[in-house]
């Protein structure tokens, strides 16, 4: 069985790319549903055990970020809330809620796309995912495949602005 | 309709006490189910619109803290993820995940019992609930009715330790 513990993404990061592309497919599905396009997948031993996208508006639920839904799915798939040995790939730096949830779920690693200067809680505003004071720490890989992740977000908000002004930006 | 915006708890804090007692009833239900006893309620215009307790083990879900379940319930009750005008009463200082969720849900206020020096994210380790850098800030009332909240937690862990040692502490 494929080992999930790949080296940190580098020139030879085909596997990481494959998983981040799966997260991007989720993010695109969010945009399709008129949700802020953020997607996440969770990988355990080379297998994707959770795929989710932001559904805050659809579910009318403030907690329905991609990462939270993916964590609940992965715990169901594993039959345990402890997700040791798992990696999350997510298309934006997790917020305090999601970074906190990653710690409680005891994942090994989080790989994310662009930083979120407004609410990022792995590096930007807080460093929750690997805070030595909490009872678990994840390996954090920031800025992986930033460009396609960012492009999806930028396109979404550009379209929103256009709609908000009746097509006249 | 009763206004939810009571003054901060003081000598004349009967209403706050009533809501915190409802959160304590939830915490006791958690203990009964062998879950760490933490309970939360959400109040809107004098009415409790959500009551929940920690269900991490029961649901095998790392995100199933009392606060998260209560937020999802309250959003369903209101038909909107925005919980302006709402107050949460919770029997322990919220963690990063839950404090982050309170901000995203845009509650007016959080009232909690004892501080959590190991994971508290309103005052102890972080100040997420009223961080000026995030897009919403709650009023934070810390240390309200600490004693009964703490007693439930202490009894639970004392009983756990006793069981773990076959009744010989």
Please tell me about this protein's structure.
Two copies of one chain form a homodimer. Chain A has 169 residues and is of the alpha/beta class. Helix content of chain A is 38%, strand content 15%. Chain A is built from five helices and five strands. Chain A has helices spanning 14-32, 56-59, 66-78, 96-104, 146-164, and strands at residues 39-44, 47-53, 86-90, 109-112, 139-141. In chain A, helix 4 (96-104) links the parallel strand 3 (86-90) and strand 4. In chain A, helix 1 (14-32) packs parallel to helix 5 (146-164). The N and C termini of chain A lie far apart (52 Å). The A-B interface holds A 56-57, 60-64, 68, 71-72, 75-76, 79-83, 95-101, 103-106, 118-119, 121, 125-126, 128, 131, 133-135 and B 56-57, 60-64, 68, 71-72, 75-76, 79-83, 95-101, 103-106, 118-119, 121, 125-126, 128, 131, 133-135.
Find the structural class of chain A using helix and strand composition. alpha/beta
> Which pair of chains has the greatest number of interface residues, and how are they split between the two chains?
A-B, 38 and 38 residues
Share of residues in helices of chain A: 25-40%
Distance between the termini of chain A: 52 Å
Strand order of the largest sheet of chain A: 2-1-3-4-5
């Amino acid at each position: 069985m494929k080992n999930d513990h790949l080296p940190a993404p580098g020139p030879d990061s085909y596997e990481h790319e494959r998983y981040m592309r799966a997260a991007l497919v989720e993010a695109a599905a969010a945009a399709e549903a008129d949700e802020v396009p953020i997607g996440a997948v969770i990988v355990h031993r080379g297998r994707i055990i959770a795929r989710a996208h932001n559904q805050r508006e659809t579910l009318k639920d403030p907690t329905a970020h991609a990462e939270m839904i993916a964590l609940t799915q992965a715990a169901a798939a594993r039959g345990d809330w402890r997700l040791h040995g798992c990696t999350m790939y997510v298309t934006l730096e997790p917020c305090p809620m999601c970074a906190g949830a990653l710690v409680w779920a005891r994942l090994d690693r989080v790989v994310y796309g662009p930083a979120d200067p407004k609410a990022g809680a792995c590096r930007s505003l807080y460093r929750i995912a690997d805070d030595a004071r909490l009872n678990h720490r994840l390996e954090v890989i920031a800025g992986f495949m930033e460009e396609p992740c960012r492009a999806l977000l930028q396109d979404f908000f550009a379209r929103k602005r256009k709609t908000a002004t009746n097509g006249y930006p």
